[in-house]
Amino acid sequence: MQGLFVKESQCSSIFDRIASSTVGILNEFDARHLSNLIYSFGLVERNPDIGGDTLFNVFGEAAVKILHTFKPQELSNMLWAFVKVDADNSRLFQETGRVISGMDLGSFKPQDFSNVLWSSAKSDEADPVLFQAIGNHIANMGSLDSFKPQELSNTAWAFATAG
């Protein structure tokens, strides 16, 4: 783990300090800030122990409470980060799948679909209702020209390997 401007040892220390400082105030975070925080820890693959629990377990508990306020990119980034640090959180994935299935899928960008599906399949938490909802939406899209090659391949991989 290394940030652009700090040594690896400094980066670890910085993220550990941020983790211990935010745990007590996570209920003050809105969806955007919580998602960005989770995503940042995923980028540096950091999931430290905090008071006998992992940081991502604490993140998951906080996120579940406000999932209905997350935007598509915030949801997809959050799920991606959980997979990146190999954090097990069935409840978060199930609740996120339920929330997404009830959302206007027209507000999702191809990368959002791709990340949600890939993360769900990779975590072995593929929700059939979520895959059905997104699958129906994609099947009914007039064209998939807006999908980049990686988004198409990740989406295909997720459908091929889920379940």
Architecture overview:
- This protein has helices at residues 8-22, 31-43, 55-66, 72-84, 90-101, 110-122, 128-139, 149-161, and strands at 49-50, 53-54.
- The protein has 163 residues and is mainly α.
- It has one domain.
- Strands 1-2 form a two-stranded antiparallel ribbon.
- It is elongated and about 50 Å long.
- GO terms for molecular function: RNA binding.
Topology:
Layout: H1 8-22, H2 31-43, E1 49-50, E2 53-54, H3 55-66, H4 72-84, H5 90-101, H6 110-122, H7 128-139, H8 149-161
Antiparallel strand pairs: 1-2
For the CA atoms, what is the radius of gyration? 16 Å
Largest sheet: 2 strands, antiparallel
Helix content: 55-70%
The parts where pLDDT drops under 50 for at least 5 residues are: none
The fraction of residues in strands falls at: under 5%
DSSP helical segment count: 8
State the strand order across the main sheet: 1-2
Shape: elongated
SSE ordering: HHEEHHHHHH
Structural class: mainly alpha
Distance between the ends: 33 Å
Average pLDDT score: 94
How many domains is the backbone divided into? 1
Number of strands: 2
